[in-house]
Amino acid sequence: xxxxxxxxxxxxxxxxxxxxxxxxxxxxxxxxxxxxxxxxxxxxxxxxxxxxxxxxxxxxxxxxxxxxxxxxxx
Length: 74
Prior knowledge:
By secondary structure, the chain is an alpha+beta fold. It contains 2 helices and 3 strands, in the order βαββα. A 3-stranded mixed sheet has the order 1-2-3, covered by helices on one side. The longest helix is centred in the first third of the chain and has 7 residues, at about 10-20. The mean pLDDT is about 85.
């Protein structure tokens, strides 16, 4: 796992998608300032910089038990 901190990013998820070609399984990106954060079903939100941690993790391998994903993400 290779965590990468960005001081500001549009969306950690968008960043991962743009960088897929150079990332490995388990790599992660995190920030305390997303400028275009998004959630499930297209929901968007605004954040106050420095008040929360936002992250995305790239998982390329199939999970033996997908129900373990919440545990993995915590």
